[in-house]
Each structure stands twice: as structure tokens, then as C-alpha cells.
Amino acid sequence: MPRFAQLVMGPAGSGKSTYCSTMVQHCAAINRSVQVVNLDPAAEYFNYPLMADIRELIEVDDVMEDDSLRFGPNGGLVFCMEYFANNFDWLEDCLGHVEDDYILFDCPGQIELYTHLPVMKQLVEQLQQWEFRVCGVFLVDSQFMVESFKFISGVLAALSAMISLEIPQINIMTKMDLLSKKAKKEIEKYLDPDMYSVIEDSANILKSTMFKKLTKAICGLIDDYSMVRFLPYDHSDEESINIVLQHIDFAIQYGEDLEFKEPKENEEDKPATLDEYFQDQVDE
Ligand SMILES: Nc1nc2c(ncn2[C@@H]2O[C@H](COP(=O)(O)OP(=O)(O)OP(=O)(O)O)[C@@H](O)[C@H]2O)c(=O)[nH]1
Ligand SMILES: [Mg+2]
């Protein structure tokens, strides 16, 4: 039997830990067992139970205080993650060999982990060797996505994680509840983006012809391959949590080998698609 994992990634403060905690609560409510592993050696506070915590292996504070290393916070984190990559047997001991388990990995927010450092890729390969089907879940804060040029940089961050990890990836715009009605309407076009209209939007902002050309080339590439789309997420809205989970389950084929479970009574009232989610938002 396969095992299942979500690698919860994204820039600092994008909502990764909050996502893990709401996902645990949501799954408990629908009778699904999901556990969380903290992979952030600098994290201090959690409002979910931890199955394993990287800080038992190594902590950023200890690395920074070490006189022979003399790292700052970011160098310290990179050191910790490299140490972690050399000690995956610690993780193996924590995870055990439970068939059919489902684990969320709450990752650190340093973007370099997903762009060019090898540790996340090494983790994915290790998990796959332990029979995990791994889905990348890349979170970006919707407030930083409402303008075209910010959106392009969010897309590129998600894309570099996707390309470097080579696993199915679901991209999520978090904190949708913080957007005004107008911004929510505006952001709809960025969820499944037509990059050619993004080019037009950014053409008015960018002054340099050289950058206009570069933006056009990047947008064209993204559009041609339909490489990036986003799901809306609001941690206080069960419907959006449900939609996100369905997409992830589908990506890693969770539930294929399990027995069919009776849906809860009010389950069928929940919208299962993005269109229904937005229809509800408009109706409110
Ligand atoms: N309103 C709202 N706030 C959110 C949501 N998700 C996260 N937040 C808030 O955003 C802040 C950062 O959330 P975290 O979950 O700590 O973000 P993180 O990505 O784990 O941050 P780092 O681990 O430091 O990179 C917290 O104050 C959360 O309460 C959301 O969907 N809606
Ligand atoms: Mg966090």
C-alpha cells in the first residue's frame, strides 16, 4: 500500500503552518487521519500536534550560537537543512513504516530551498523510496498577487519549485478572506491565468522596452505550456479547504485503494468546483 505526503512550501508568511493546522482539523472532521512533521528548524509555535519536529535533530539558534560556524539566520537555516539531508535516518525513525499514512511536511519559508538548493529534491527522492506519493503544495499570499508584475514573480517562484522537484504540484493563493470584494473579482483572472492579458496589464507599468520584451517572453512560455494555475484558499472557509484537498488527493491518487466511505450528511451541499466556490462568493 502506498503512503501519502504533502510538501507544504511557499515564501515566508504565506500561511504554510496555518494551512497544516486547518488541514488537520478539516481531516479530523471528515474522519481522516493526517499528521504533521515540522521541517522548519527556526519555528517556535505550532497550533497542531506534531508527529515529528526537525528541532529535535537540529535548531537554528544552536547553529547561530556556535562560535566555529558563525552563521546568520538564513545561512544557519541552510546549514540545518543540509544537516537534515545527511540524517534522513532520523526522519525514517520518526515516520516508522505505517502503510497508508498521510503526512503533511510544514517546510521553512526561505525561497532558496525551492529554487536552487538540492535538499528538498533529496527529501522527495527519499520519501519516494519509502513508498510515499508526494504532492507539492505551493502557497502564495493572494495579497501579493493582485498586480500583474507581482503575479509574474509569484508564478515564477511556484514554477521553479515545480521544475526542481518533479512531482505533481498544487499552487494555492492563501488569505483570500483578506481581499476586498473588488480585489477578489480582480484576482479571479489570475487563478487560471491568460498570460497574454497579463502581458497587456504589465505593459503599462513597465517602462523599459527590454523588460517589456522579457516579460512577454516569460508570459508566453507560461501560457504556451499552461504550466501554472492557482486554487483560492481561505483558512476559515471549509469549502475552499475541501476543494484544495480534492485536487491534492486526485494528484496523488489518494483513496483509490481504500474502501468507499459514506459521505457526511451535509457533504453533498458542499461545492466541489472552483466555479461553485466563486458563485457562492458572489451570492453572499
Ligand atoms: N486572514 C488570514 N490569515 C491567514 C491565513 N493563513 C495564514 N494567515 C495568517 O498569516 C500569518 C502567517 O501565517 P503562517 O501560517 O505562520 O505562515 P508560514 O508560511 O507558516 O510562515 P513561516 O513559517 O514564517 O514562513 C499568521 O498571522 C496567520 O494567522 C488565511 O487564510 N487568512
Ligand atoms: Mg510556518
Short account of what is shown:
The protein is an alpha/beta fold.
Write the layout of secondary structure elements.
Elements: E1 3-9, H1 16-29, E2 35-38, E3 50-53, H2 60-65, H3 73-85, H4 88-95, E4 102-106, H5 112-115, H6 119-129, E5 132-141, H7 148-165, E6 169-174, H8 181-191, H9 195-205, H10 209-224, E7 230-232, H11 238-252, H12 274-283
Parallel strand pairs: 1-4, 1-5, 2-3, 2-4, 5-6, 6-7
Helix pairs in contact: 9-10
Residues 10, 12-18, 40, 109, 174-175, 177-178, 234-235 line the site of guanosine-5'-triphosphate.
Describe the fold and architecture.
Helix 9 packs antiparallel against helix 10. Strand 5, helix 7 and strand 6 form a beta-alpha-beta unit. The radius of gyration is 20 Å and the shape is globular. It has a 7-stranded parallel sheet with strand order 3-2-4-1-5-6-7, sandwiched between helices. It is 48% helix and 14% strand. The protein is built from 12 helices and 7 strands. About 2% of the residues have low confidence. It binds guanosine-5'-triphosphate and magnesium ion (MG). Belongs to the GPN-loop GTPase family. InterPro entries: Gpn, Gpn3, P-loop_NTPase. This is GPN-loop GTPase 3.
